[in-house]
Amino acid sequence: MLYSKIEGEGKPFIIMHGFLGMSDNWKTLAGQYVEAGFQVHILDLRNHGRSFHSDEWSYEAMVQDVYEYCQANNLTRIDILGHSMGGKVAMLFATTHPEIVDKLIVADIGPRFYKQHHQDILAGLNAIDFSVKPSRNDVEATLSQYVPDFGTRQFLLKNLYWAAPGQLAFRFNLEVFNNNLDAIGKPLADDLVFDKPTLFIRGGNSGYIQDEDVDGIRKHFPNLTLETIPNAGHWLHAENPKMFFELTAMFLKE
What we know:
Number of strands: 9
Shape: globular
Radius of gyration: 18 Å
Oligomer: single chain
């Protein structure tokens, strides 16, 4: 069963992180959704955070995990939000289990194919030799040679934990990502449609959702609203959490 943090009372609202992320990334926003009257479930997807590791890593497998989580927690009518990879999971979940989902929110990802672009990050992660028992500073120093952006490094370093006294490790399953990296860019199948209210939010400085992508998104999600957060990149919910919350809360309350 997926690891989750459940807070609040009200309509169940599932939140799913992106690639190499975890539920903790959404802690602050989750608290705001609780205040807005939702029962918030922030998940760690398989091979991420505190959830289980598995050699099978695909959108279909992740959707099945979420479905089993809903069954186990008696969640029969939910709203769902996913960012990046989590957005792809949310899209596939909504189109294959529309009887469960009332509203869908997708943050800065489309249903189309995305070519692999995480090579530098993965090279940095693979360059870390945990057998020499590096400190957090040592890990960051190695990462900085491959990932110059401070914010991205801090995002990755949140995955560090003490696996044993004096022994750091990453929570995510790096080996499986190395072996199955193409899985993350997989498109939504052409025939899948979710016709209930759907909100896509993109970062104005992000290239993940282009103007020319909108018609393709609408084919899958005809009841589409598209919003743009100006001067925000791919981590739009972290760069402008105030606007992100306002847009999503307004959509959920409509």
